Structure formats: structure tokens, C-alpha cells
Amino acid sequence: MSHKSPKDFFAPLAVGAPAPLREIPARPSRAIHFFDPSNPKMVDKIPQMVGTVDVLLGNLEDAIKADNKVAAREGLVRIAQETPGLGGASGTTQLWTRINSLDSPWVLDDLTTLVPAIGDRLDVIMVPKVQGAEDIHYVDRLLAQLEAKAGLTRPILVHAILETARGVANVEEICGASPRMQGLSLGPADLAADRKMKTTRVGGGHPGYLVREDPRDGDVTGPRAIFQQDLWHYTIAKMVDACATHGIYPYYGPFGDIADVVAAEDQFRNAFLLGCVGTWSLHPKQIEIANRVFSPSVEDIRHARRVVAAMGDGTGAVMLDGKMEDDASLKQCLVLVELAEELAAIDPSLKALYDGIEL
Ligand SMILES: CC(=O)SCCNC(=O)CCNC(=O)[C@H](O)C(C)(C)COP(=O)(O)OP(=O)(O)OC[C@H]1O[C@@H](n2cnc3c(N)ncnc32)[C@H](O)[C@@H]1OP(=O)(O)O
Ligand SMILES: O=CC(=O)O
Ligand SMILES: [Mg+2]
């Protein structure tokens, strides 16, 4: 197997294509809100959503009827061209798309239509059902050719959905396959099917996946507490480690029980605590949940700032509220403080909230 040298990794893959980025910018992306660009009711709502959500994603893949694939692609081009503030270097809300899968009859037209028409507005292309580095290499080279032809000056980034067993097995090589790699999302619905899990849901837990308290006084039929377990813990943790290793960003994916706002919040918070930077939103009501969960709380920021202040030059150990703090807890606190600063820079209400914190 041949490998590129490090310097070649950052050379454009087509003459005239923009130079790859050396670092993926940490742009807030708490909610990646999915919409169907062929659905007039959803499309009508897009202009008002700009500025209220970090990412708007025009979905072209699953959930778009086969008969509407062309209308969705063309609708996305119109939306990108006509919606102020959406996507590109000056956009207040990022514009992403999810293209059709690489084995589908639509994906080539997706890429050859979108890049010339709206490549300057598209921030990230989400690629579904990625199996290994070879899928990213294919998209990488094709994007470079299309960017060069369109005269683009900014590389379009690539995000892969982790939704096949082989993709999970190859997660490291996927993350490191191209300097375009921006991040990964968990795709629990397709992943469950591909793994032959015996579930029928889009993300979230399952009442049958549990641990049960031991019998009390040996009575196996008596009352015993049960604790539902997280079906996705292993995959999310694996994804977070792979992304952190490669300097890219991990996301939870879809939570399909739109009515169950409480369980959605739990699932999102678990992902936030494990290291994810955001999640998908499938319905407008999930945006508020995601924005809240993926923004550090006032209590977390107050505590983090107190630790930073108490640690002085960052070395040694101190006691704060009966707990030992040192370099390692300081580093955790700095993750939260830096995230709060990034979010405050784009969200005036969060800025006011964080600025008003008294230590
Ligand atoms: C496993 C995966 O691949 S997940 C990713 C693929 N799936 C998706 O992208 C699904 C996206 N979401 C949807 O298609 C829809 O939200 C559905 C089908 C789940 C529910 O749609 P509805 O039954 O219309 O929901 P509901 O009646 O609550 O909608 C309320 C309003 O919000 C609008 N709306 C619903 N979802 C969205 C959305 N994602 N973006 C913008 N507007 C939306 C509806 O059009 C409706 O508008 P109206 O008040 O003008 O009639
Ligand atoms: O595309 C997402 C999934 O869960 O499948
Ligand atoms: Mg899927």
C-alpha cells in the first residue's frame, strides 16, 4: 500500500484547485438542521431560520422521494443563490448539503451541479454511508477538479456519516483520508440496519437494552430497578476518539422521535458530554434543544472560570470547594471556556449570559 508524503497531503488534487486547509475551523455547529429543498413549506421557512441555527443542510439523500431528487437539487441551488446570510465566507448560518450515496444514480449529478452553481456558498458536503478511505478519496479528487473548473478559492469541506459496520471499523482511516475532512456524524438508523441490530428506531435508546438490579433477598420475581443502557455509547466514543486524534469534529446524528423532546435532550446531552460538538435537527422544535444542550451552562462556565483563576500559572494543585484541581481539570475547564467564547462571538444572548457570570 502506498502512502502520500505529508507535504503532498496538502497539495491541491487538481491544477487550479484551492489549497487544502491545514486546520479545520472550529465554527459553531450545535444544530445541523435538515430540510427538504423540494418541499415548498420547508423552503418558505429557510430565510427566517438564517441566524437562528448554526447550520442549514439541504438534504438530497434518504427522506427525499426518488421522484423529487432533481427538484431537491435544483431547489437547493435556488435557495443558496437567493438567501442572504446563508453559507460562504460571510454567511451567518453555514450551508451544508447531504449528497446521495456514492453508489446511487444521483450523486454524480449532485456534485457536478452543486459545485459550479453554488460552490462558493457551500461550506460542507456530507457524504452518507462512507465505508472507508477510498470513498473520501473519490469525493476529494472529484471536488478538486470541479473547484478548479469553477474557479473557487475556498475548498469545500467533507463530512462523513458513520452508518455502516465497515465504516465504523475503518473510522480512523476515514478521518485521516483527506485534509478536507471536517467531521463525522453518527447515523444510527442505517448503522442499526447494516449491523442487523434488532431495533426499529431512528436513534435513541431501547427499553429492552438494560441492566437489572440483583434480586433483593433472593426473590427473582420481586421488584428490581432496571436501568436502560445507551445503545450508541460504544460507537460515539469510538467516533469521538477518532475525530479528536485527527483534529476534526464529531456529531450525534438524527433523533427520530420528534414528539419525545425529553429523550432527544438526553441523547444530545450524552453526546455533548462525551465530546460531540453538535447534533442533527430534523424538525424546527429540535433546534432550540440542540442550541441549549451544546452551549455550556452558566454553572459550568462559572466553575470553569473559578478553576482557571485559582490555578494561576496552571501548574501545581489547588483545593477548590473541597476538590483537588490540577493541570488536567484545568484543561477540561479551558475546553468549556473556549467553547463559550466561540459561541458568544456569534450569539449576543449567550454573550450577555456568559458576561454576566459572577465568580
Ligand atoms: C435517518 C436519516 O437519514 S434522518 C435525516 C433525513 N430525514 C429528514 O431530513 C427529515 C426532516 N424532517 C421532516 O421531513 C419533517 O419534519 C417530518 C416528516 C419528520 C415531520 O413533518 P410534519 O409532519 O410536516 O411536521 P409538523 O406538522 O410538526 O411541521 C410543522 C411545520 O414545520 C415545518 N417543518 C417540519 N420539518 C421541518 C424542517 N425540517 N425544516 C423546516 N420546516 C419544517 C412543516 O412543513 C410545517 O410547516 P407548516 O406549519 O407551514 O405546515
Ligand atoms: O442517516 C442517518 C441514519 O441514521 O441513517
Ligand atoms: Mg442514513
UniProtKB/TrEMBL annotation:
Coiled-coil region: none
Which cofactors, if any, are listed as required? Mg(2+)
Q: HpcH/HpaI aldolase/citrate lyase domain: which residues?
A: 31-201
Report a single Gene Ontology molecular function. lyase activity
Ordered alphabetically, the record's keywords are:
Lyase, Magnesium, Metal-binding
**Pfam families per the UniProt record, alphabetical:** HpcH_HpaI
UniProt cross-references to PANTHER family, sorted A to Z: CITRATE LYASE SUBUNIT BETA (PTHR32308:SF10), LYASE BETA SUBUNIT, PUTATIVE (AFU_ORTHOLOGUE AFUA_4G13030)-RELATED (PTHR32308)
Q: What is this protein called?
A: CoA ester lyase
The species is Nocardioides panacihumi
